[in-house]
Design a protein that fits this description.
Blueprint (H helix, E strand, L loop, with lengths): L5 E5 L4 H10 L5 E6 L2 H12 L4 E6 L5 H12 L6 E4 L14 H29 L2 E6 L12 H21 L4 E8 L5 H4 L11 H13 L4 E4 L1 H12 L2 H8 L9
Parallel strand pairs: 1-2, 1-4, 2-3, 4-5, 5-6, 6-7
Length: 255
């Protein structure tokens, strides 16, 4: 969609979510931003309003299914959402040990169930008017299971595959679905990593690439190309080849 007017972004308090909100900000744009941190959301709002966007905030956790549905229902009483970006997510790894079941549940609850809690109420509204766009933020980590972050890579893989399937399912109903797979982006989420991150890019460049891909209605928006090619190839190769390589990757910190 080239000129969405009413845009909802989850996880807009920092990182990619904030950068996307800023990238879309201009006069005549209505931004509906949600997140868990009121102070961070207020900062995003100020930055977007400086660019003349109209900003409405909601403090909520995407894992709260009822709160998410109620918020979207309330928005739709006065506006018609053109673009919904399911961005909210958390990241954690094994810290060199075994990943706890509590961490696994928390990651899946936010990264997968949280996405579903957001997009399905929006889809129900869009189906009625036969138009709209849904964008799901996955990751290049979702192309191959990573021993250093099992739950994170699995949750992002689920989002990617679900989004790609949903695109074909909803296209006849007039709804576009786009799956976004960034590599390393400099955000508070990656700032805690204590290892070298290849091809890391600024959050502003990331947002620009996403916006451009959504305007072109690309099915899969994956970048940077060099790292995308590596993970794509790794997914094709036999685990006999890739297992020893991925076992040597540095571990992310745990929650």
């Amino acid at each position: 969609m080239k000129n969405p007017k009413n845009i909802l972004i989850s996880g807009a308090g920092s990182g990619i979510g904030r950068a996307l909100a800023i990238a879309y900000s201009k006069q005549g744009i209505n931004l509906f931003l949600c997140g868990r941190n009121s102070e961070k959301l207020q900062t995003t709002k100020i930055l977007c309003e400086e660019l003349k966007a109209n900003v409405l905030l909601q403090i909520l956790d995407v894992t709260d299914e009822t709160a998410m549905k109620n918020w979207i229902d309330k928005i739709e009483e006065n506006y018609q959402l053109d673009l919904v970006i399911a961005n909210a997510g958390i990241s954690a790894g094994t810290a060199g040990g075994k990943e706890s079941f509590l961490q696994v549940k928390k990651i899946f609850s936010t990264n997968l169930t949280g996405v579903l809690n957001l997009v399905h109420p929006a889809i129900e509204k869009m189906v009625l008017r036969k138009k709209g766009q849904i964008a799901l933020i996955s990751s290049l980590a979702g192309f191959r299971g990573l021993p250093s972050s099992p739950a994170y890579s699995a949750s992002k893989s689920a989002v990617r595959v679900y989004g790609e399937a949903l695109r074909g399912n909803l296209a006849p109903l007039g709804i576009s679905v786009n799956t976004i797979c960034p590599g390393y982006v400099k955000t508070p989420m990656t700032d805690v990593n204590e290892f070298t991150m290849p091809f890391i890019m600024s959050v502003e460049k990331c947002a620009a690439l996403i916006k451009r891909g959504l305007e072109k209605n690309k099915s899969r928006i994956a970048f940077p190309f060099s790292l995308y090619f590596v993970v794509w190839l790794a997914a094709l190769l036999s685990p006999r080849i890739t297992d020893p390589i991925f076992a040597k990757l540095p571990a992310k910190k745990s929650l």
